[in-house]
Amino acid sequence: MSTPSNYYDAIAPLYDRSRWLTESVAEDVADFILDLVAATPETSFLEPGVGTGLNVLPLVKRGYPVTGIDVSQEMLDQFRQKLGRVPANLRLIHADASRLPFADASFDVVITVHMIHTVPDWRSFLDDIQRILKPGGVYLNCQWITPPARREFEDYFRAIQSAFVQPPAARSIAQFADINVEDYFNRSGIHSRYFVAKEWTVSNTVRELLSYFNARAYGLCWQVPEPEFSKLMREFEAFCLNHYGSLEKTLTSTAKFEIWAYTIGRSLT
What are the pLDDT digits (tens) for 199-230? Predict the structure, then answer.
């Protein structure tokens, strides 16, 4: 199997079930966000890198104006399938989400979730976010914190994978470490407020997690080409059986949805 030019197209059908944010959790996060930004029925939202819509689907269902932009057509198609039809309050754009083709002062709220590290020039991207936000608009830089049991599982995979990975993958990790959104905004006198919008319990069997890795549901899985990837997974499954004792063992831990909120032009109260 060769690496696709956009691996999100390949994983779109299994994206939602291989992640740990559920629709019910997303509803609770939406409640938190709406309170945080003091939303009115006219409050407009943009999510660059919207994907399958996990983060903003509750906002769409509640009638808020939502725009989503994503480089993966397959991911956008998954979003559309959840709705049956695209409602009038939702606009989906198939394009590079790091380039925001919108006029100045177009949105009240911009949300990014796990996507800044994919942007080639993240400082210019944040400049653009400030440009398209209305005065007093809010930028929410969000992430789902990986449940510790799943993080440990991934770390075991990475340790075995290290013998198969080419040097460019290591360089990409270093680039990720250089991203400092907080410092970028602080230099402009804009300070964040930090929130944990939601904590919830995540449980998966070892076999279930192995199935996600076998299906290459995560970006790190595309760092190794076939047939080496098949060999890697055989080694990893053998490790899991030895380490966990059974592939049916359930791994349970707590996930978090974190938000850093930046208000452009006034303080967030």
Answer: 999 999 999 999 999 999 998 999 999 899 99
pLDDT score for 168? 53
Whether 100 and 48 have beta carbons less than 8 Å apart is answered as yes
Computed over every residue of the chain, the mean pLDDT equals 92
- Return the structure tokens found at 198: 């939601």
The domain made up of 7-263 has a fold known as: Rossmann fold (3.40.50)
* Tokens standing for residue 192: 């964040």
> Rounded distance, CA 87 to CA 80, Å?
10
**Which residues is 140 bridged to in the sheet?**
111, 261
The domain spans of the chain are 7-263
184 burial via Cβ count (<10 Å: 0-12, 13-18, 19+):
middle
Cβ contact 147:20 at 8 Å: yes
The answer to whether 68 and 91 are in contact (CB under 8 A) is yes
Cα atoms found within 13 Å of the Cα of residue 194, Cβ hemisphere only: 5
Q: What is the pTM of this model?
A: 0.91
**Best CA proximity match to 204, nearest among 243, 239, 240, 249:** 249
Looking at the chain, the number of H-run helices and the number of E-run strands are: 11, 7
The token duo for 90 is 């939702």
pLDDT tens for each residue of 10-59: 999 999 999 999 999 999 999 999 999 999 999 999 999 999 999 999 99
Check: CB of residue 18 under 8 Å from CB of residue 218: yes
Q: What pLDDT digit, counting tens, does each position of 105-121 carry?
A: 999 999 999 999 889 89
Name 52's Cβ contacts closer than 8 Å, sequence gap at least 6: 12, 15, 16, 75, 78, 79, 82
